[in-house]
Design a protein that fits this description.
62 residues, alpha+beta, 2 strands, 13% strand
Length: 62
């Protein structure tokens, strides 16, 4: 989805939650993702009233 603004993304997140009780937002951003992009997703989640935000992480190959 193209990020227009935090309010529009918050509305999209609310719709994606489909009325579920306490949906979880999972942010999966690699090392190349701009910090600001992650902050924008977190702000949209806050505006949507989604308090459960989690981060998916990938362990480096050994």
């Amino acid at each position: 989805m193209t990020f227009a603004d935090a309010n529009a993304f918050a509305a999209a997140m609310t719709a994606a939650g489909g009325g579920r009780k306490d949906p979880v937002v999972v942010i999966n951003a690699d090392a190349n993702a701009p910090h600001q992009s992650v902050i924008r997703v977190m702000e949209a989640a806050r505006l949507a009233g989604l308090g459960q935000v989690s981060f998916a992480v990938e362990s480096p190959a050994r």
